Amino acid sequence: MIEEQLKKQEYDFISKDEKQFVSAFSKAMQEIGYVNDGITPYVCLGRYKIEYYKAQNKTKKVIARFYFRDNGIVLRLYFTDIDRHREYIEKAEDFIKNPFINEKGRCKQCDKSGGGIGKKGKCSFKKTYTIDGIIYMKCAGENYYFANHDLYVIPKYIELIETFYPVKIKNQTK
Q: Which domain holds residue 39?
């Protein structure tokens, strides 16, 4: 579905290489059980988006998203319980590790300034975790953008996703 959509003239603002990356990433996601609803209009962070979620889940918990912006594509991944995967991140290549440790999306302490969101005035977007002995506080609403769009890195992105979202094996009867 994605490949056919990308051939349409309305997506000509995306480069050929970016289209190949989106197509290959979509195929890789499908192979590990994630689906999408195709390219859909968007207004906040780009003209269009693609959202990836587990096929069999009742709720569509998005774990990856592409934004199609005038200046190119953006791959955003969503994570929880980052400390649990600290060792993996610490050993990861720079293009995987950087979104976790760079300055992008640094927490602005919304819950302490009275503009908190969520229960009891606590910000529900704050992610606090430790990488290489440094404590990071980041805003999940503004973070985890992955800039390397070379085809050869797709297996690394898939490995990262599978690290955070391992395949759950249901009880099997013998």
A: 2-78+145-164
